[in-house]
Amino acid sequence: MAPGPVGATNVSVGIANLPNQRHKIVSRKGTNFTVMVVGESGLGKTTFINTLFTTLMREYKRPEHRFNKQMDRTVAIDVVRADIEEKGFNVRLTVIDTPGFGDYANNQDCWVPVIKFIDDQHQLVMNHETLPNRKIDDLRVHVCLYFIQPTGHTLKPLDIEVMKQLSSRVNLIPVIAKADTITPAEMLAFKERIRDCISTHDIQVYSPAVHSDDEETTRRNTSTLAAMPFSIISSENDVVVNGQNVRGRQYIWGVAEVENENHCDFKKLRNLLIRTHMHDLISTTHDSHYEAYRVSKLTAEGRTDNDPAISARRNFEAKMKEEEGALRKRFAEQVKVEENRFRQWEQKLISERDRLNEDLDKQHTLVKQLEEELEEIIAARKR
Amino acid sequence: SSGSGKSTFVNTLCESPVILRKDHLDAEKAAAPKTINITPTTIEMDEDGLKLSLTVVDTPGFGDNINNEPAFADILEYIEHQYEEILSQESRIKRNPRFQDNRVHVLLYFVQPTGHGLREMDIEFMRTLGPRVNVIPVISKADSMTPQELNAFKKKVMEDISHYKIPIYDFPYDEDEDDEETIEENTELRGLLPFSVIGSEDEIVLNGRRVRCRQYPWGVVEVDNSKHCDFSKLRYMLLSSHLHDVKDITHEVLYESWRTEKLSKEGHHDDDEEEVVID
């Protein structure tokens, strides 16, 4: 279809009001936001989530229960949901935690449950698209925060492998956890090395578009990008500093503040996640990651754009018929086997019964004999 | 594991840059699985007028790989190899008077300050190595925890250690034999386990004195301040007060039990009249 004539209206028709309409719709509907946190235990994932949304989303694991799972060597997927409201706008927030990740001596394949979860969500949405009722609980992960241990050296092989796998499937944002272990000078060098590592190994981390119409926004975006990977400090407690109540961690030697830009990049990350780029995260998940998954899945199944769904259905039906036939055969065989078994059992029972009957007869004749003898003796006695 | 502050700790302990930063900072090599490089370094120190030859064995690369179980065997082999050397020396007819005893007297295991207790890797490793060497768990980078968190974490670690029956060097004392002072000292040190350490090679001048410390925008953490961490107590214990105790236990308990195990495996029993294999 050729595009129609292009031109601008010289009387305002009201097209410019479209964003406002969208705004009304979105603010009424609310939105669905799913965050996944991945990283070794003890890096502050739970605290971070609680700090980010300033509510106690996740409770800490009870220390007495740790003996049950410490040696389990499994990675679990924990889903926590909450509804958050600010100024009338609702967010259905889902947080996905991965306890057990990277905690063991042998961490081979510990990322598999995580990857599977992400792929499964895409698959679920894909399946539901062809059903008549398309409303589902969309649990597709919009952003994945990967927590890096503050070693000060560089990324570990586990980090690199997992980030590679994650970056092709989901918006990945690496963060440096427990940033209050690293002095500012060390932090700059560490970030530099991490960025080096990321580019050497071709890991596609989420980078927001820098340029925008607004000068202020462009500047903000550049500074945000320069600070990646973000260093974070989290705390659920308030501390008094200079007469003010701030979120922070109280040490003997001072207070590390969460919202202080000189101490860590928490504010930048929060702005990125919520204030400025939440919608971008949600839409890129749908537009690029979901689409990429869909394409790869469908081409793997052998479908191309020219082939209608019919041939796939035909293949599918043929396969079903085959399997049905095989099942039927197996069923018939099983029935035969069971019947044989029962027949044999029956035979055995019959022969057993005959034997017992024989025995009974024998006993019977014996008794008769004895009775006769008895009568003879009585008769003889009588004479 | 890498980045837990081992090299910095050693350099702080010896007050000189004994261990240099190596190429584990290279981005390209970061993804490759590393074999651990067990490298002993010896330095001469003067401790309270007493000359001390301190050998430090570093294990860069431990705990870094995706699968770390082979590393356990490597370290255990190193320790047992030293024992084997001693055994073969002892069994010689003509012993070498200048033979150097390279046995490992203390193993400092650096625990990550997660706040959640020991991890499976820590438990497995200490359980494997505990019967062969004096293991002392140490909490590295202790400046990532507030005092309450540190106490709670220490408690959790000790609970884990007793729950999984992990053998560590816990300052043993004999109620009957040792004197009051020793008992008190050992109880106090035992209560401090695992030691929290902070390492730093940088010095600044604070209040007129030179202090080793880490400078943060929110404050300065001093290495030698016993309110900030247990580094000075650990140093004193390692290099002065418990030096001989640790060596004694290595020789009399750990080496002997290894020797018994090894010789009974080879088919020697105490009631056999056969002698030990002679070189």
Automatic annotation (TrEMBL), chain A:
GO biological process, one term: mitotic cytokinesis
Boundaries of every Septin-type G domain copy: 29-300
GO molecular function, one term: GTP binding
GO cellular component: cleavage apparatus septin structure; septin complex
Keywords of the record: Cell cycle, Cell division, Coiled coil, GTP-binding, Nucleotide-binding
InterPro entries: G_SEPTIN_dom, P-loop_NTPase, Septin
Family: Belongs to the TRAFAC class TrmE-Era-EngA-EngB-Septin-like GTPase superfamily. Septin GTPase family.
Protein name, per record: Septin-type G domain-containing protein
Organism: Physocladia obscura
Lineage: Eukaryota, Fungi, Fungi incertae sedis, Chytridiomycota, Chytridiomycota incertae sedis
From TrEMBL, chain B:
GO biological process: mitotic cytokinesis
Tagged with keyword Cell division: yes
Domain Septin-type G: 1-265
Superkingdom of the organism of origin: Eukaryota
Record carries keyword Nucleotide-binding: yes
Name under which the protein is recorded: Septin-type G domain-containing protein
A UniProt-annotated Pfam family: Septin
SUPFAM superfamilies associated with the record: P-loop containing nucleoside triphosphate hydrolases
A cellular-component GO term for this protein: septin complex
PANTHER family, per database record: SEPTIN
One function term, GO molecular function aspect: GTP binding
